[in-house]
């Protein structure tokens, strides 16, 4: 388990460059919603960097595509953190490819 957390942290650091600095850290998950097309949308209470222009109207809202295996993995982490009342940190893609006005999640990290 510790190995997975270290690996996730390393991946997070590698992806967190200035060109992809769409991040939110140390916040709670609220208002999870699932849509009929597989999009899962949730609000994050953590501190975040400037959102991309497509997500500026809802800067604390994030989206996951649960219709894909990758999105299902992210959803599993999200729901586990939510049910355990753990805070999470998020690295976004800088796009709103899943839900037009909500930034897409690239990486979710559960904080200890």
Structure description:
The chain has 2 helices and 7 strands. The chain is of the alpha+beta class. The protein has one domain: Beta Barrel (OB fold (Dihydrolipoamide Acetyltransferase, E2P)), CATH 2.40.50. The chain has a 7-stranded mixed sheet. Strand 2 and strand 3 form a beta hairpin. The longest helix has 15 residues. The protein is globular. About 6% of the residues have low confidence.
CATH top level is Mainly Beta
As a percent range, the share of helical residues equals 25-40%
Number of domains: 1
Shape: globular
Using the coordinates shown, work out and report the CATH topology. OB fold (Dihydrolipoamide Acetyltransferase, E2P)
Strand content bin: 25-35%
Element order: H for helix, E for strand: HEEEEEHEE
- Helix and strand composition category: alpha+beta
Low-confidence sequence ranges: 14-20
Number of strands: 7
**Radius of gyration of CA atoms, rounded to a whole number:** 13 Å
CATH architecture: Beta Barrel
Summarize the structure.
This protein has 112 residues and is α+β, with helices and mostly antiparallel strands.
Structural key phrases:
2 helices; seven-stranded mixed beta sheet; 26% helix; alpha+beta; OB fold (Dihydrolipoamide Acetyltransferase, E2P)
Task: Give the secondary structure arrangement, pairings included.
Layout: H1 2-15, E1 23-27, E2 29-34, E3 39-44, E4 47-48, E5 61-65, H2 69-83, E6 88-92, E7 103-110
